[in-house]
Specification:
alpha/beta, Rossmann fold, 5-stranded parallel β-sheet, globular, binds BIS(adenosine)-5'-tetraphosphate
Length: 190
């Protein structure tokens, strides 16, 4: 199985690049952000709990997102592989993911980490916020909080995967096509 963690700060291009990778490699796309937003749209209890947290730019609790990923893995047992987009975001999530995959007799193939400057992240997210209707993209203070959460809780995961010799860092500046080409090159070399 090919199991990719697509990693990077908010606005790095994870969702954008995942959509290209799933077609090329025939993988199942698991975006915790997308799953949470669909719970909000459906007005579920989980969605109601998550909305206030996401609107502030904080991270939703580990138990909730690990439970979501666990059930998605169970529902896709014939998949050729997965792209994890926006998951894991904490060390508890990374450890849980390793255990869930181990139970399925598989593991993470690589973490591909997109590197983008803060000023570019803020620019992209404010631009998306003009049309997306996403509360967390509308306000520079909330975006700054998301970047802070990333630096404090999520960026340290690079070390977790580097220790497993699975980390590749990719420049996330430039055209979507070029970045996609660079991601494909790393995946094809696995
Ligand atoms: P996510 O949905 O993961 O949101 P994101 O990080 O903002 O998205 P992404 O990084 O994929 O956006 P993209 O760059 O593609 O998370 C939202 C919230 O959900 C979190 O803050 C948290 O509250 C919660 N959450 C999700 N997962 C969680 C977890 N595991 N644990 C706890 N909480 C969790 O796109 C950004 C913009 O840039 C787009 O408009 C795109 O068009 C543009 N863009 C992309 N590539 C570009 C390029 N090369 N050049 C110019 N623009 C580009």
């Amino acid at each position: 199985m090919l199991n990719i963690v697509l990693f990077g700060p908010p606005g790095a291009g994870k969702g954008t690049q995942s959509n290209l990778l799933i077609d090329k490699y025939n993988l199942v796309h698991l975006s915790t952000g997308d799953i949470l937003r669909s719970e909000i749209t459906e007005g579920t209890k989980l969605g109601l709990q998550a909305k206030a947290i996401m609107d502030r730019g904080d991270l939703v609790s580990d138990d909730i997102v690990i439970g979501m990923i666990s059930s998605k893995l169970d529902n896709n047992h014939n998949a050729k592989g997965f792209i994890f987009d926006g998951f894991p975001r904490t060390s508890a999530q990374a450890k849980a993911l390793d255990l869930l995959l181990e139970k399925k007799g598989t593991s993470i193939s690589a973490m591909l980490s997109l590197k983008v400057e803060d000023s570019e992240l803020i620019k992209r997210l404010l631009e998306r916020g003009k049309n997306s209707g996403r509360e967390d993209d509308k306000n520079e203070n909330i975006i700054a909080n998301r970047i802070k959460e990333y630096n404090n809780k999520t960026a340290p995961l690079k070390k977790f995967y580097a220790n497993q010799k699975k980390l590749s860092e990719i420049n996330g500046h430039g055209s979507i096509k070029n970045i996609s080409h660079n991601l494909n090159t790393v995946i094809d070399s696995l």
